[in-house]
Amino acid sequence: MTQNDHNITQGINVSPQHPITPAPQPYYQQPAPINPEKNGLGIAAIICALIGLLFCLVPFTGFIGLALGITALILGLAGWSRVRKNKATNKKTAISAVVLAILAIAGGIWGIVIVFGAVNDIDEGFDCLDQAQTSAEIDAC
Questions:
Q1: What DSSP assignment string belongs to 7-42?
Q2: pTM value?
Q3: Which of the chain's termini has less CB crowding within 10 Å, N or C?
Q4: pLDDT for the residue 136
């Protein structure tokens, strides 16, 4: 192997007419990010929590608000966990979702208690009316 052959295998072009020049380097693209952001859980949690709060405001749908609040709490805590593991960047969204989910759970429980309390009062009123025999007793009910 001659000196010229050795230089060619090392990526250096040597010829009597041209001076020594290094071979051009290949073009490399930037590598894809190793850990792409996964913000979906926090976003899903805040959406569920907001919809759950809306259902808590409507009579007779407190159970839907409760279910959505529990779902939002689970998703929000999972999103917050991803933030702590540096797999997501939406810390404020996840924390807000957890807070709103707790409010939706409380509102759902409150709505259910109000509905069952009202149904119980109506039932007691009908029982009173069934047992009343005079108009004075009916008026007392």
A1: HHHTTEE--SSS--EEPPPPP-PPPPPSS----HHH
A2: 0.67
A3: N
A4: 82
